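Priority: medium. Attachment 1 of 2:
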């Protein structure tokens, strides 16, 4: 035992006050470790990019207006006009998978999108899924046929899929709900109130291992509620998991809350791999957007901060707003775009709260997992450009083990690769930022499916998708235990 270790042990024996703030070794129920009184676990300086030739904010016009967040003391969400807006109806809208193998395909797609005839749902190097508005069906068909671009219809009537996606719970489930002490199930997509109520219930029921903390407020004043599961062992590693950055990706908070439920309810019988980790969960990063998708527009993606630019468009894509290489490729400076990057790095209260949490936390995280949908991908950095971190082979092999565990459990095939390489460059993502903080195992997981239902995945898929993915998390925990 080295002299430093001896000193620490001595201090711990002599004084619990000096002992407790050491990294990850809080006793359950106590404050989470912050940086105020401990050694900083990682260097705050932004690391240099590992690949040359790309300068920060290259070829990007930075908007002059900086939107300062308005402070509010009011705990209640701000009532906005959106609360009285009717639901957006997608009757007759279709979703097509379009081949982008031909040279001119992507250009045509961009043109149709700029004419607002279609909206992109995402794609890879071979195809793109597009939402085609009902009035545009004829024009878009003609445009694709003229250029001999192949496509097929994935969703015939989007509104019908939306109507069928989230059926009410049956009598038995409702009865169980009443007895359980919280309303959360994994047979339905729940409102934010149910998710937060469930987190509070766990903290109250299992105070020795579960604690809940609000790390900030959304633009409309909703809590950004984080839950920690930990038995307080000093030797524990730490893993951070978030969901719901994009509002419409409902499967993501459903899967993350499933993990929370499994680990919290069964902690005593969980393997040491799980117990030897302090788990931090933020299941709904974008609560305003999430509620908006339930109340008004099922397919909203961004947050709900309003009034950007002369066009007064609402919302920033939170996954383009993180502060590592913000404003580069695959992010828009146009406020009405679905991939609007915001007025500056961490200009949004939701992404800023996460950054502030990491800045003030003394925890040294071993892994950061951020759950999205859809496409079935396990993506590692970098996203900002076609570049790889120095330890990309470790990320690839861990990713393959996770994908194998998913496949062995439920049969779904997840492709593993860097996000820029497998999909397309997208700067300002939370994964790049997490990696820039030296969190080694950083992944964006694009959950099911591959386009049959897309964002509108029926609630009956929650449990199968979550079961597959918790197997992946268990493998990650097993591998971390060996390091
Ligand atoms: Zn997403």
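Attachment 2 of 2:
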């Amino acid at each position: 035992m080295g002299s430093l270790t001896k000193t620490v042990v001595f201090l711990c024996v002599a004084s619990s006050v000096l002992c407790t703030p050491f990294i990850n070794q809080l006793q359950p129920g106590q404050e989470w470790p912050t940086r105020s009184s401990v050694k900083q676990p990682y260097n705050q300086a932004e690391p240099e990019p590992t690949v040359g030739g790309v300068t920060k904010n290259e070829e990007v016009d930075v908007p002059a207006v900086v939107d300062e967040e308005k402070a509010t003391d009011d705990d209640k969400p701000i009532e906005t006009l959106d609360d009285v807006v009717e639901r957006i109806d997608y009757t007759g809208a279709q979703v097509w998978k379009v081949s982008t193998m031909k040279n001119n395909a992507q250009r045509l797609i961009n043109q149709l999108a700029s004419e607002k005839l279609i909206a992109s749902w995402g794609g890879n190097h071979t195809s793109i899924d597009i939402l085609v508005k009902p009035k545009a069906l004829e024009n878009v068909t003609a445009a694709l046929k003229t250029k001999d671009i192949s496509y097929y219809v994935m969703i015939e009537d989007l509104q019908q899929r939306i109507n069928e996606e989230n059926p009410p719970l049956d009598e038995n489930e409702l009865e169980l709900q009443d007895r359980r002490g919280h309303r959360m199930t994994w047979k339905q997509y729940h409102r934010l109130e149910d998710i937060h109520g469930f987190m509070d219930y766990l903290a109250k029921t299992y105070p020795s291992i579960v604690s809940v903390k609000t790390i900030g407020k959304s633009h409309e004043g909703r809590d950004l509620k984080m839950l920690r599961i930990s038995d307080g062992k000093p030797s524990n590693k730490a893993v951070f998991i978030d969901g719901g950055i994009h509002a419409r990706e409902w499967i993501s908070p459903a899967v993350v809350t499933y993990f929370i439920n499994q680990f919290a309810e069964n902690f005593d019988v969980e393997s040491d791999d799980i117990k030897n980790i302090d788990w931090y969960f933020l299941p709904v990063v974008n609560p305003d957007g999430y509620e908006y998708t339930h109340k008004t527009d099922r397919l909203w993606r961004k947050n709900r901060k309003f009034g950007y630019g002369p066009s007064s468009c609402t919302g920033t894509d939170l996954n383009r707003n993180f502060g590592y290489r913000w404003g580069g490729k695959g992010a828009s400076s146009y406020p009405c775009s679905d991939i609007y990057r915001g007025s500056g790095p961490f200009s949004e209260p939701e992404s800023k709260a996460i950054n502030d949490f990491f800045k003030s936390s003394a925890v040294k995280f071993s892994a950061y997992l951020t759950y999205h949908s859809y496409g079935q991908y396990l993506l590692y950095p970098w996203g900002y450009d076609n570049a790889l971190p120095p330890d990309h082979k470790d990320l690839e092999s861990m990713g393959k083990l996770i994908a194998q565990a998913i496949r062995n459990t439920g049969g779904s095939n997840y492709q593993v690769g860097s996000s820029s390489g497998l999909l397309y460059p997208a700067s300002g993502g939370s994964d790049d930022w997490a990696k820039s903080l030296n969190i080694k195992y950083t992944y964006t997981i694009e959950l099911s499916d591959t386009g049959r239902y897309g964002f509108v995945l029926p609630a009956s898929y929650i449990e199968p998708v979550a079961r597959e993915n918790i197997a992946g998390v268990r493998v990650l925990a097993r591998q971390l235990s060996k390091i």
